[in-house]
Amino acid sequence: MAQLEIFINRMDSENVRIVHRRVKMPSPLGMTLFMSSFEDLLSLRTRAYLIKDVDPEILRRLLGARSLATDLDKSKMADYYRSKISEPMNANGLLRLMDMGGGLNKELSNPLYEHKLKDIDLEVLTSWVRELAERGLIARVRGTGHEQIDNKWFSMRMADVHGTLGCLAVAGGSDLEDIRELYTGGLTFEVGSNYDGFEAKEWKRKNLSDPQDCLRMKLLDMLGSEGPQVSDSLCGRLPFPKAQVEAVLQELEMKNLVSIGFFTQTDEGEYILRVDEYRITGGSVEVVDYRTLQNHLLAKSFKEYDEPSDAIRNLTLVQRRDELLHRVKNYRFRDWKDIKHDSSVFNGRLLHNRVGYTMKDQIPMFLGLRSEPWIGYLEQELLDKIPPGGLSRTELFDGYPKGKENAHIQRSLKSALNNLERQLIVAKQYVVLPNRKRSLAVFHRIHEVVEPLDFASAVKQLIEAIGPVRLHTLRFFVSRPVEELAEVLRELDESKKIRRIVALQPDPTDYYASQEDAELLMQPLVEDREMRILSQSDPFCSRFIQEVRLILKQGWYHPVFKGVDPIGRILMFVVNDYLEIKDINIPHSYLDEFKDTFDELLNNYRDRLVDVSVLHAFNSIPVHDCDENIQKILAELGFTSMGDGERYIRGGVVEPRSRQEVNRML
Known about the structure:
The structure is a single chain. The chain is α+β, with helices and mostly antiparallel strands. Among the domains are: 212 residues, no CATH class; 133 residues, 3-Layer(aba) Sandwich (Aminopeptidase), CATH 3.40.630. The protein is 41% helix and 18% strand. The protein has 29 helices and 24 strands. The strands form seven sheets. It has a seven-stranded mixed sheet with strand order 16-17-18-19-20-24-23, sandwiched between helices. A hairpin with an 8-residue loop joins strand 12 and strand 13. Helix 9 crosses helix 10, helix 18 crosses helix 20 and helix 27 packs parallel to helix 28. It starts with a helix and ends with a helix. About 1% of the residues have low confidence.
């Protein structure tokens, strides 16, 4: 800055020449500006606001006049959205219609889909509603305190959404900039059940669902059923502040579910579902939205099994004991010891970038994904020493010179063994020895003992196991040239052994899936909104690790998922047989559900003899300074003050003593 000031002063006092030269490469500043024009770090709405600051005349010269993104006029657009759901012909057709949005009032009408019901006789409509109610597929909602929601008929999915949003609007959600900061404990509404005609025999009290998720679903349903809408129109119809609605819209935009553009007018940008935008602007390929793909992968990854071996086969491999927590019924951390020492479980570098545990019958697939191994003289010598029953590391190196003067020989042996492990020529099994705390690793020969699958069959089996996957992601599983992988995928696709599907991410992106998975993606999918505390190496989390880190920031932590959405994180680790919890970041609206999930995790740590947990902060606030809602949750989890004014402890007792008293005791 000092040099710049000197230069500016010289401009006033003497002649300063500015020389313009043509160069092959721009300056560092120029290169930064040039590269930033290709980066996609800003949301479309943010870029739209930045463009608004440009002089209109300059903008007109650069971009020309605004034009609509589609050639469809308003009537054709309306026809497109009306065609998304056909007129109901029976009770199930009415249910699909009600799943698209608002509920039916006492007169069994709704302005949103009045044109679909106008030709249906009221008696027929009444019989359909009665049938759906008696089947438990629709219900009335009451007790929200919101006149536009109470006593209306909703599908069961939309009953939760409208019941939650109604309670939040009455409880003060309309005054908050972020409804996740509103603690929803104690807020309930009622849903009718066991209907006899139109009358409910029983009213079940229900807790509120995820507020952010309900608002997101409501916005998606509005855009999906009514078409492009401007922000003011959406905000005006929802009992929440404009900033809150726009924040959710921006989040949907970041997740590639919503786009913004000009579709029915050119005065202000309109929000539209990304799938609808693709279709009305000329997209010819059948596509699935990215969230549907994520939910399918979530359901596939967290399918629950009775036996750990089946869960490991479903995942192809596991790396940590906590990866089986949500995938095996009645699984506890204490069970990991038995799983690890099972005679059919092998450990090794199964992928070129990942070490883990797998079942013996999965090894042919992993071998088929690899190229031919390279075996040197020393590697072959070690390999020939391994009998069918396996050898420990000590036995494998037995007979070679030791001592300082032979350190180079020992280094060569270790390097040779590492080469064998890295190429999956050998794999380990762990054996329990009496009077020994740690397990003994026994090396077994894999090369020329286990017959590998051919490359095409291995890729097909992998895709069937891990679900729809991109070519880029498959490269992490395969250690062969990408050209060979692409050729095999093309052959499998042509032979109908796998199917290529297209997901909007946000541009159309090719995914390769099994025939079964491809069919499931085209069917309606109920979202799993269970809360899970995972590790970053978890098979599901690692598939979307870049998106997780975009939302939860970089660093080491345990991400907390609500369904497919990362909503919080826990920074904790085991130190000297106790659990050090540095910080927990969870929105207030999820506290009750988080309490149950976190309590289950802490109880599992006790199986590892990690009984004591020490907590420092919650939502980056020292635990002693947290509000009463968090204090209540921590008390229910069993945390109490350590007496130092800084930390809470669970599972242990801390009784500070004065130095004089300690010295006397000693």
